[in-house]
Amino acid sequence: MTELQSLCVYCGSSSDVDPVHLDNARALGRMAAERGVGIVFGGGRVGLMGVLADACMAAGGRVIGIIPRDLDDREVGHRDVSELEIVDSMHVRKMRMFHRSDAFCVLPGGLGTLDEAFEIITWRQLGFHDKPIVLFNLAGYWNPLLALIDHQIAEGYVRPQHRDLFEVVEAPEAVFEAVARARPPAKPARTERL
């Protein structure tokens, strides 16, 4: 892996969550700034998104928010970041976040976070990119998801090696360690199951 310059972080927009989640989002933002790693995120001021961005900015880091015009009001677009890009749709948002990032981290979140996580993992499975993906399993938050993936493997819908498309960590500093040691997966064969 080349040197990490920008980390895309997918995370929730709710503030009504376990304070430990908010604290770890802050820690990740601060650590990114301390390492000279820019944050690319969904552009909202609220929830984990907001505290992540605020912590990175407060520590002197660079933060790029990308938010669809329709969500700018609902997710309270963050005007106090290095750059806020307002785009026309969710599809454009996800592509812009992808292109502006060297690696991806998935913090706790809701359905939107799941959507983003599965899309970026699937793109890696299909060989569309070889950027590292880290699932931040804070206090076991993603354990049910990991159990589902294990079930899909057991039932034959997911190949066992696809479990290696992302790394699971349990602490913010481990996110950067995982990205540093990541290796791209082998390109899938055309006949391989999705």
Describe this structure in words.
The protein has 194 residues and is an alpha/beta fold. The chain has seven helices and seven strands; from the N terminus they run E-H-E-H-E-H-E-H-E-H-E-H-E-H. The protein has a seven-stranded parallel sheet, sandwiched between helices. Helix 1 (19-34) links the parallel strand 1 (6-10) and strand 2 (38-41). Helix 1 (19-34) packs parallel to helix 2 and helix 1 crosses helix 7. The two termini are 25 Å apart. Mean pLDDT is 92; it is low at 188-194.
Helix content: 40-55%
Q: Give the class from helix and strand content and strand pairing.
A: alpha/beta
What characteristic shape results from the CA principal axes?
Answer: globular
Please work out how many helical segments DSSP would assign.
Answer: 7
- Summarize model confidence as the mean pLDDT: 92
Largest sheet: 7 strands, parallel
Q: Beta-sheet strand percentage?
A: 15-25%
Order of helices and strands: EHEHEHEHEHEHEH
* Spans where pLDDT lies below 50 across 5 or more residues: 188-194
What is the distance, rounded to the nearest whole angstrom, between the alpha carbons of the first and last residues?
25 Å
Radius of gyration using CA atoms only: 16 Å
Beta strand count = 7
Strand order of the largest sheet: 4-3-2-1-5-6-7
